[in-house]
Amino acid sequence: MLFDVVYATCYDDDDLRSLAQNLEAMKGEWKAAGIDGEMCTMNRGKKKQIDPLAQAIAAALAPGKFISHATTWSFVDDVEDLAGDIAKIIDTEPERAALLFETFIAACHEKAEEIDDSSGNFGMLVERLFLDWIKSRQAAKHDPDETAKLLFTWMENDPHGFCYNLERQLVKVLDKKGLAALVGQIRARFESVPSRDEQRSPAYAHRKWGGVLKTLLAGKRDIEAYKALCEQTEFKPQDCLAIAKIYHNRRRRQDALAWVERGLAIASSDRRRSFDDHELRQMQRALLAKIGRPGDALQSAWAEYEAYPSIFTYKELMRYVPEQEKISWHQKAMQVSEKGDLTTQIELWLKMKEIDRLVSRLRKATRQELEDLSHFTAEPLAKKLKRSHPDISARVYCALCMRIINAGKSKYYDAALDNIKSAKKCYDKAGLNADWQAVVADVRQRHCRKKGFMAAFEDIVSGALRHV
Hints:
The protein has 26 helices and no strands. The protein is mainly α.
């Protein structure tokens, strides 16, 4: 078996059987190309020369050793360095690089059982290996049909999810013939699976391969084939967006606009909002402006801002406001923002330096509203207002502390104590000792049993040395 190579001493033959069969099937092709297989062949009784990069793959992946979440980052960094070294020989030794990348991918499938990849970094590494493998085979002038067959086999048998959404990257590296060959493989699979399951709902396999096929056809910019496929399944907003983008790239803006509006019509029948809806509306406005309808683009942006006032919809609105009208539209937008939720108001008003408006709103905010703010919103807010409005900053720091204490997150008591200490300083600066004493009384009453917090809290109240 060809892959007895580097891992024969580390893995059982049964675990590698499927991979070895695939590699064995390619042996004839490699020999025809002038590769004798010694890079990855080992005789049971007599060892042959092994490619040093193949040996490096074994050393880098450390077979038999479990990689914990804490060490995954450094592990993947080291493996990526090796992948980069192999990529450097694609132009000069494409045959060797292709074989090494194929070996690397197979070994990563084995290593997947020995790594905590909660971060997804290892999976992203394997995705890169697939792309470099394709580049190597294309550089070596391999048969695109054979490449497509091997790639499809990996995509169909993907127990670790390494090929999930891989098609989105494949369209960027496959050449014209390679993309056509893969489309043929995927289309054959799509047409071979039932379109409905026993409950008469769309079958998973049919949806999966239909989605992959759509991505590849969009990559080919084969608009007629894409439309025909949608007729077989259904038109969704993302399909209309993909077709509109193809038309837009061909400078057929009226056709692109028609498909954008069709996608928006489909989306309007679904109460759920998606990123595709947002992208459709953005594209609609851009197209309206380009075909000489800037007023319609502005009204569309204003309608969205009125419905969802935020920093993002504000920026989109101002893109279509004429330069000489920006001040009046800004004032109009700020008035509408008064009806938004507190988090989006904080983000928008801080960015637009509407501090008076922000302070006025925060003075009316209840304790619960402040405690409901996320750490990422509240902490920069408290720091921003620390000097100019210490009374408001004190309330926000208290809210940050109470979020942790109320939830009983003892792991973050140090952060809670830092926040309450900052709150005390702000209350002192604002001359609001009575308000600070009210906070102290409330904490003592509601959290007296949390000894891990209360001892250091009392040190802060008394002005003793900083908690350790």
